[in-house]
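WARN retry 2 of 3 for item q-0093 after timeout on previous attempt; input resubmitted unchanged.
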Amino acid sequence: MTLFLNSKDKRYTMKKRFLIITTLIAVLAMVGLAQAQDDGRINMVGHFGGDNLYCDNIDGCTLLNTDGEFLWNVPKSVIDETFTNACEVGISQEIEAGMGTYGPSLLVISCYEGYEPTLKLKAFDEHGKINEIRFPRDYSPVSAATAEPTEETATPTPSATPSPTPSPTPPPCAWTPTSDIQPQVC
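OK item q-0093 returned
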């Protein structure tokens, strides 16, 4: 038995296939994006030409390129020692970490009185622009900022009631002649 489709059936089948393929691609893209962003790297939102920074309490901080190849590592002991020195003096100190894919990169340790101690990666991207990302001492990844919903309420502002400007009154004993012949008497 031979099955022939008319042109209306062919269009319906093509639309159905297109919709299924498009939906499948969209789902795979979302799953891939979610996995790529939740891989433990510090710079989930920072761009360093594809280089990714991973830090932990055992190995310290390690920079890998786009392909996952090792670029440099700063041991945890060096980071801890730099934190100690920076906090004793109350300043920032730099660690020359090594070469990233597009140029030199630094870890900056900041420890100022009244502020949380932080680390900052400063490195170049593929456009020659130096970028930086600040992250906490516990090596928490930096994700995109989310705006917290705020409830705005109108606050009435007191309206000032304008008062009339008083007209000037002459002093009680001012000499103003009432006529040319007779002066005014106070």
